[in-house]
Design a protein that fits this description.
The chain is 42% helix and 19% strand. By secondary structure, it is α/β, with parallel strands linked by helices. It folds into two domains: 7-129 and 255-322, Bordetella uptake gene, domain 1 (D-Maltodextrin-Binding Protein, domain 2, 3-Layer(aba) Sandwich), CATH 3.40.190; 130-251, Periplasmic binding protein-like II (D-Maltodextrin-Binding Protein, domain 2). Strands 1, 2, 3, 4, 5, 6, 7, 8, 9 and 10 form a ten-stranded mixed beta sheet that branches. Strand 5, helix 6 and strand 6 (185-188) form a beta-alpha-beta unit. Helix 2 (47-63) crosses helix 9 (267-281) and helix 4 (99-108) crosses helix 11 (302-322).
């Protein structure tokens, strides 16, 4: 392969080679014949972990084999993704991939123990979730417009948090800042709960965080939500406008969780997993369980998910480049 090609063309070429290679790999007609390990590159108890547990409960029922959840948090998902990439490609180790881990985290990393385009096989999409733009209840603003005006008249007064440099929440906030002229200073944290705690204490003034994490503190009055980043309002917080309704359509985005395996997995196993996961995601009971987590089931074919990953990589690469975001 010509390594002088632009990165996107190399990505497309590598994807084509990957699918050709997996198509030639044989798979057991009885798959699965034993439990399947599902690596989650985040701690137990979070929205991504809860989403996986909802889905795997139904997958166990459908496939007759248990799914063993293996939480591998740390390094913005690198630890978990590395374990997936290096697993035996027999279909018995798969794992979660999210916007923050496999896209934004990979784009800002100086080095990785794996090649994101080469070492993973996209299997399925699981769910999407919007973020909330929240501010400290003590901040004298009640709308996005007022927040922007306040930041411009108080240029050193707005500090915003994230769960680390190059995380999806950091990149999403920079997209919002660039789209509005907001004047704010970034304060990276090791976790969003820590940042949200400081936001409620007034040590931070602003935070974009996962809807499911922030909504309870908005409902209790400990934080004030100014906008939801998704394309529509949520019935859980019906009075909170979308970014487009708040006048910032360019800052619309959702976080998401998908499923990948190590490259070299048999193609028919990938197809079976994709089909079974999509069947689970159209089950009304599962749709309701995910909605209770403030998430939307998002079934996609193998081709659709692969295309989605490419589009997300292109979009956030541009945001990271235009805002000089690094992992430092």
């Amino acid at each position: 392969m010509d390594l002088r090609k632009p990165p996107l063309l190399r990505y497309v070429a590598l994807s084509a080679i990957l699918y050709m290679a997996t198509a030639m790999q044989p798979a057991s007609a009885e798959y699965p014949e034993k439990p399947i390990r599902w690596i989650v590159p985040s701690a137990a108890g979070g929205v991504s972990d809860a989403t996986v547990r909802v889905v795997t409960t139904e997958l166990t029922r459908r496939l007759g084999q248990a799914f063993v959840i293996d939480n591998r948090p740390g390094a913005t998902g690198v630890i978990g993704l590395d374990a997936i990439a290096k697993a035996k490609p027999d279909g018995y180790t798969i794992g979660s991939a999210a916007l923050s881990s496999i896209v934004t985290g990979s784009l800002v990393a100086k080095s990785l123990p794996y090649n994101t385009a080469r070492d993973f096989l996209p299997i399925a999409m699981l769910a999407t979730q919007p973020n909330l733009l929240g501010v400290a209840s003590s901040l004298p603003v009640k709308s996005v417009k007022e927040l922007i005006a306040y930041s411009q008249s108080h240029p050193n007064a707005i500090f915003y948090g994230s769960n680390g440099n190059g995380s999806s929440l950091h990149v999403a906030t920079e997209l919002f800042r660039a789209s509005t002229g907001l004047r704010a200073t970034h304060v990276p944290y090791k976790s969003t709960p820590a940042a949200e705690t400081d936001l409620m204490a007034g040590q931070l003034q602003m935070l974009i965080d996962n809807f499911g994490t922030m909504a309870p503190n908005v409902q209790s009055g400990r934080l004030r939500a100014l906008a939801i980043t998704g394309p529509r309002r949520s019935p859980l917080l019906p009075d909170v406008p979308t970014m487009a309704e708040a006048g910032v359509p360019g800052a619309e985005m959702v976080t998401w969780t998908g499923v990948v395996g190590p490259s070299g997995m048999p193609a028919d196993i990938a197809r079976k997993l994709n089909s079974e996961i999509n069947a689970v995601l159209t089950d009304p009971k599962v749709v309701k369980q995910l909605a209770d987590l403030a998430s939307d089931a998002a079934p996609m074919s193998l081709v659709q998910f692969d295309s989605f990953l490419k589009a997300e990589t292109d979009r956030w690469r541009a945001v990271i480049k235009n805002n000089n975001i690094t992992a430092d």
